[in-house]
């Protein structure tokens, strides 16, 4: 199953904070879809605010239905 960048982006913080090392969340989503980066590279995803979205995205990345 090919990961959809837009679907991944829907779960990301969309703050473009650059904490992951990428210029935008879209760039991070594209690299995440290609498995060039790890979700752990996005510190905001591991805050309480994004816990539910992180869990859904983790399931998506593991190939399970979210």
Key features of this structure:
66 residues, 3-methyladenine DNA Glycosylase II, Chain A, domain 3, iron-sulfur, 4Fe-4S_dom, ACDS_complex_subunit, 4Fe-4S, metal-binding
Q: Classify the secondary structure makeup into a structural class.
A: mainly alpha
Q: Number of helical segments? A: 3
- What is the CATH T-level topology? 3-methyladenine DNA Glycosylase II, Chain A, domain 3
Shape label: globular
Task: Give the topology string: H per helix, E per strand.
Answer: HHH
The CATH superfamily is known as Electron transport complex subunit B, putative Fe-S cluster
Q: What's the mean pLDDT score? A: 92
List the helices and strands and how they pair.
Elements: H1 5-11, H2 25-33, H3 51-61
Helix pairs in contact: 1-2
Organism: Desulfacinum infernum
Keywords: 4Fe-4S, Iron, Iron-sulfur, Metal-binding
GO molecular function: 4 iron, 4 sulfur cluster binding; metal ion binding
Detailed description of the structure:
- With 66 residues, this protein is mainly α.
- The chain has a single domain (5-63), classed as 3-methyladenine DNA Glycosylase II, Chain A, domain 3 (Orthogonal Bundle), CATH 1.10.15.
- 41% of the residues lie in helices and 0% in strands.
- It contains three helices and no strands.
- It has helices at 5-11, 25-33, 51-61.
- Helix 1 (5-11) crosses helix 2 (25-33).
- It starts with a helix and ends in a 5-residue tail after the last helix.
- The mean pLDDT is 92.
- InterPro entries: 4Fe-4S_dom (IPR007202), ACDS_complex_subunit (IPR051069).
- Pfam families: FeS (PF04060).
- It comes from Desulfacinum infernum.
- Keywords: 4Fe-4S, Iron, Iron-sulfur, Metal-binding.
- Residues 1-59 form the 4Fe-4S domain.
């Amino acid at each position: 199953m090919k990961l959809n960048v837009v679907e991944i982006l829907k779960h990301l913080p969309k703050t473009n904070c650059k904490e992951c090392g990428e210029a935008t969340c879209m760039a991070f989503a594209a690299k995440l879809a290609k498995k060039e980066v790890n979700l752990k590279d996005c510190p905001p995803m591991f805050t309480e605010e994004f816990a539910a979205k992180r869990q859904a995205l983790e399931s998506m990345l593991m190939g399970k239905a979210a």
